[in-house]
Design brief:
heterodimer, A: about 550 residues, six-stranded antiparallel β-sheet, 11 helices, B: about 375 residues, mainly alpha, 2 domains
Chain lengths: ~550, ~375
């Protein structure tokens, strides 16, 4: 018993105190002989080690430490681009860290190893504990210890007896035993009346809660794993009046789970009808802060579903047949027409710009690979409300369209799109290109207001700024196991509350008849695990006994 | 969106300032009490030693019974020193200035009492300031670093006072009030933010639950941190005493007013258990629910999420350590202290210096 307890998984608040009541624990250490370990023995030894509380604690602390690098180094799950930049900026160390999976911490071999070992250890502890707990629930309370006065809490009451010349007549021992059992039962103990004693125990729910907590954690892990297998997520930028149909080809970015199949995708469509931004116009300190984004969308479920007008807002996603649609971003898309040197339209349409700050100073990149004789590229800023900051530099001073302006540099040459390699549409590599317009050259930069057209130098063509439209960025997520994670997490929480705040207590009452013929009731209390209110229980119990029986005042010992 | 009530907002800021001043006064009085307490103890001790000596003489001469001597002795010491508590029976060691249950023993500590009264006043002003800020902005008053700190400070002070009604934890006064003053100062100096509406991402009912539970958990962890630090110091003193080393005594007189290391450990454990439940429900579970609603995924290993997880695991480790042989006492205390360090890091460093989804500091750009 003693050795076993050492290696048994003991969760919070479940320290088995010295347990004189259990008795027989003296199956002594002395007669433990050094075991001969075979392969089976080795395995058993490893298993015992793994499932020991100390190992579990170590694994827990290792898990905490192992999670930290993920907050220090950029992670691919969040921003693959940032990871590549980091590695480029830190040659040498970057590759080494990458080899050790420091940019994929939470799917790395070492992190996975720690939490898998932890969960194996946890299961290895839960199973025997659950079995033991079941046995305890189904068996009577432990036998009455011989010396109750040795228990942490103890009390004795001598009942009056008219035979001994007292004023009132207390119950006989048998009756007192029944009374004590009733009191304990009323205090929600599980009670067993024995020959000359009562054994009682309560608080089994504590261990039940503890088991529930740990089992539910396993449930959480399983659901997380299921989620990563069968989920998918993707991103899409929608211009005003543009529609989106939930199919692979429609996505700008798509991240399928390991067991994703295309026919799993819910058939729905979303069309952006209008988008409204509200900014703070009252505050002097927070003037221009975003207050509300509302996208008016028309959704349709299935090919022949009823089109529905809905509002899509931040914090208010749409649910389409289990898939969720989130509003994660928005910005301005200036409509631009680029004509090449031959007068043909090389590019026409809205250009998605990426807002960089609170006043929507936005990065704009335009690529016109179809332009002739040379391919054309433009890089610059879109400013919703442009104002001169001095030195001829313009900055945006407000997020709304007060004085929209495009500030662009232009380039010609091979944009590098012809070799078929995927490129970031928001980045133009200008290194291999010739400069047409920029603040550094005589031609200067391009500054355009809506309706204006600029003729490029060297007869390379022209660019016109036709107007501004809104766009929104939506994320589409589907994770069938998400509900499961929540349910298991809440189950774990309730188990945790039970295991932390309930107390497991044992009580015993014995009766005997004194020489004077009075009934002497003794009782003792023992808690398993941390119990800071055992004394209160003692007092409450004594109160109830005193109410029930005529108790003889303790004799003055002079 | 309803306009901000600027007049009320100004009152809020005024009362915040008033509260900070009263807290500072209370803090200083607690500090005085701490310093004086050692002087008081020394005097009581000296007198008791005298009495003991006198008593021994009396007993040996058989003139007066021991009880009488004890009675008159404690009465006279009470008159002179104002330490009425006291060790009524000469046999009891002078160490019994506090008991394990942290009950009030009646030791007269006027400075501490005034400090408590001032704290009550400050909490009232502070509560008005926080509430009026929320009403002025028509939302919960914990949406940026300034508000998080001021609301957190209010909670620390309120929890401290609440516990005071039942337990004598005045020994924590200097720490608790010092912390509150620091938080108020940090809010005003580090993150001054005028009342304003919040960005769309924060406009969710979850902010009321998620953030308030986080503040609550953090307040509890802060108090247990103090208790665990005291526990370590007290443990050292107890060891020194056990080995009969009395050289440390003069330096650590204040610790006589602090409960034993075991008692501190138990109380810290009980509060940490509550804090852990809050942390599980608040930052972890409701945080995940809100993250799903706002960003589409319930868990994405954002910097803040990582640290929330780390803190949860550290405190889970602490709770397990309490049940592991060889890990109770000091080691568990260290885990609790590490957990608190993580919390400070999560709040102070992650919010301000790490790019992430929780960059709501409201800091000027």
């Amino acid at each position: 018993m003693a050795e076993k307890r050492e290696n048994t998984y003991m969760p919070a608040g479940h320290r088995d105190g010295p347990d004189p009541a259990a008795g027989g624990t003296s199956a002594s250490r002395a007669d433990v002989t050094p075991p001969v370990l075979g392969i089976k023995g080795m395995f058993r030894w490893a298993w015992t080690q793994l499932t020991s509380m100390r190992t579990a604690l170590m694994l827990l602390l290792m898990l905490a430490v192992a999670a930290v690098p993920g907050s220090i180094f950029p992670q691919r799950v969040q921003d693959a681009f940032a990871v590549e930049t980091w590695i480029e900026d830190n040659p040498g160390i970057g590759e080494v860290l990458d080899f050790f999976q420091f940019f994929d911490v939470y799917s790395s071999v070492w992190f996975s190893a720690i939490y898998l070992l932890l969960f194996i250890s946890l299961i290895g502890c839960i199973l025997p504990r659950a079995k033991k707990h079941w046995q305890q629930i189904t068996s009577p309370p432990p036998r009455t210890p011989r010396r109750l006065e040795r228990l942490p809490e103890f009390g004795a009451l001598e009942l009056q007896s008219s035979a001994a010349g007292d004023a009132a007549d207390g119950p006989e021992p048998d009756q007192a035993l029944q009374d004590a059992a009733a009191v304990l039962k009323a205090r929600r103990y599980r009670v067993e009346v024995r020959e000359s004693s009562v054994g009682a125990e309560k608080g089994y729910l504590k261990e039940t809660g503890n088991l529930i907590f740990h089992i539910a954690l396993v449930g959480v892990l399983i659901c997380v794993a299921l989620g990563s297998m069968f989920s998918y997520r993707g991103q899409k930028i929608l211009m005003e009046d543009e529609g989106f149909v939930n199919a692979l080809v429609a996505y700008d970015n798509f991240f399928p789970g390991a067991y994703f199949s295309e026919d799993q995708m819910q058939p729905f469509s979303v069309q952006l009808d209008g988008f409204e931004r509200v900014f703070d116009r009252e505050s002097t300190t927070h003037f221009g802060q975003a207050l509300d984004f509302t996208a008016d969308v028309t959704t349709q479920l299935g090919a022949d579903g009823e089109p529905q007008s809905q509002e899509l807002k931040v914090n208010q996603p749409l649910t389409m047949d289990g898939a969720r649609v989130f509003l994660v971003g928005n910005g301005y898309a200036p409509e631009v027409t680029v004509r090449d040197g031959e007068g043909e339209i090389a590019f026409s349409g809205p250009v998605v710009t990426r807002p960089d700050d609170q006043v929507y100073t936005s990065m704009a990149v335009i690529k016109a690979p179809d332009a002739a004789p040379e391919q054309l590229g433009f890089v610059g800023l879109f400013l919703p409300t442009s104002a001169d900051a001095g030195d001829g530099l313009a900055v945006s001073v407000d997020p709304e369209l007060g004085n929209p302006e495009l500030q662009l540099n232009s380039y010609y040459g091979d944009l590098g799109l012809d070799d078929g390699l995927a490129q970031n549409v928001y980045v133009l590599d200008t290194e291999q290109l010739e400069v047409l317009n920029s603040r550094e050259v005589d031609a200067g930069g391009i500054v355009l207001s809506p309706g204006e057209t600029y003729d490029l130098p060297e007869g390379m063509g022209s660019i016109s700024f036709d107007g501004v439209t809104d766009y929104i960025a939506i994320d589409i997520h589907y994770n069938p196991a998400q509900q499961g994670v929540l349910i298991f997490a809440l189950t774990a929480l309730s188990g945790l509350v039970l295991s932390l705040f309930l107390t497991r207590r044992r009580a015993w009452v014995t009766v005997e008849t004194t020489e004077e013929g009075r009934t002497l009731v003794r009782y003792g209390l023992l808690s398993r695990g941390e119990d800071f209110r055992l004394r209160d229980e003692n007092i409450a119990l004594r109160d109830q006994f005193e109410k029930k029986w005529p108790v003889r005042a303790p004799e003055e010992e002079s | 969106m309803q306009s901000i009530n600027m007049e009320l907002a100004q009152y809020s800021e005024l009362f915040m300032l008033i509260a900070a001043f009263i807290y500072t006064a209370a803090f200083m009085l607690f500090a005085v009490d701490m310093i004086r307490s050692s002087a008081t103890i020394r005097r009581v001790e000296a007198e008791l030693a005298e009495e003991n000596a006198a008593e021994r003489q009396l007993v040996s001469s058989g003139a007066v019974s021991a009880t009488a001597a004890g009675d008159s002795g404690s009465a006279s010491s009470g008159d002179r020193v104002g330490a009425g508590s006291a060790p009524a029976a000469p046999a009891a060691p002078v160490d019994e200035l506090v008991d394990e249950e942290m009950a009030y023993l009646g030791t007269r500590r006027p400075f501490a009492n005034v400090a408590v009264a001032l704290s009550v006043l400050a909490v009232a002003a502070h509560a008005f300031a926080v509430a009026s800020r929320g009403i002025a902005a028509n939302r919960v008053p914990w949406a940026n670093m300034f508000e998080f700190l001021t609301t957190g400070a209010l909670l620390v002070a309120a929890v401290f006072l609440l516990v005071l009604t039942r337990k004598d934890i005045r020994f924590l006064g200097t720490f608790a009030l010092g912390l509150v003053v620091t938080m108020m100062m940090g809010a005003t100096v580090g993150f001054p933010t005028p009342v304003a509406h919040v960005q769309p991402a924060l406009q969710s009912p979850w902010i009321a639950i998620h953030v308030s539970l986080a503040v609550l958990a953090m307040s509890l962890f802060t108090l247990t941190f103090a208790m665990n630090v005291l526990q370590l110091i007290q443990h050292k003193r107890e060891l020194a005493q056990a080995t009969g080393d009395t050289t440390q005594r003069s330096g650590w007189q204040f610790l006589r007013l602090v409960p034993s290391a075991t008692s501190l450990e138990n109380w810290a454990y009980r509060m940490n258990a509550v804090g852990f439940v809050f942390w599980t429900l608040g930052p972890l579970i409701t945080g995940a629910i809100w993250a799903e609603e706002a960003w589409g995924r319930y868990w994405g290993w954002d910097v803040k999420e990582v640290w929330t997880f780390v803190i949860w695991v550290v405190y889970a480790g602490y709770l397990h350590a309490r049940a592991t042989r060889g890990w109770t006492g000091n080691r568990a205390a260290w885990l609790s202290i590490i957990g608190f360090a993580c919390i400070m890091f999560n709040y102070g460093v992650v919010n301000v210096y790490f790019p992430g989804l929780h960059s709501y500091a409201g800091l000027p750009e």
